[in-house]
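ok so i was messing around last nite and threw this chain in just to see what happens. nothing serious, just curious
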Amino acid sequence: MRRALVFSILLACSTKPPPVPAGIDASVAPLPPPHEVASNAPPTNDDASAPASTAAPAVDAGPAMTTAAGDEAGKLPQTKDKPAASSPPLDARAATLWDAIAHDDPDRAMPFFFPVTAYAQVKDVSNPASDWRSRLVSAYKRDIHGLAKRLGKNADSAKLVRLEVQDDRAKWVEPQEEYNKIGYYRVYGSKLVYEVDGKERSFEISSLISWRGEWYVVHLTGFK
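result:
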């Protein structure tokens, strides 16, 4: 009888599942490992438990889309300085637009386009850098190709004369008027005047807006 009792106890112990650590529900299967996400970022030694940074993400404008001077200025705060209708810096930026049209090469005109870093401060949209790149810059480049086509065979002989800004039409745009978080000056109907065979002709620039007292293109031909 004693031997039978001992045998029964040993048999029960051999079939009993192993103990489960406290706090773990053994009836729930463990989750599979997370999918690996491709990343171009180099590995770091940061502690994974550290809180996420609250710093604003860097603006990625994409290749051949930015100019150092404009983007550096775009990182600074906006001012309410009204841009001059004519100035050496403005004339220099306008010349890049003319050069781009004459050579059918839109990248040459990027110094005259509103800086992506400034646009990120101005526009009240979820992803301003993406909107800047995919909508505004795409339209700008398309418009330059179109103007180059209009210039056609005159490209070699045509000469830039001046940029005409309709200074009396410049208006300060208050925040929230045009999906904007901060204000800026805006002017419609400026003209890039050029000369062919002794006669002046022009291309209209739909909209310029200001950043820190300087004019930049935001819409070249129409509003898209």
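not much to say yet. Confidence is low (pLDDT under 50) at residues 4-66.
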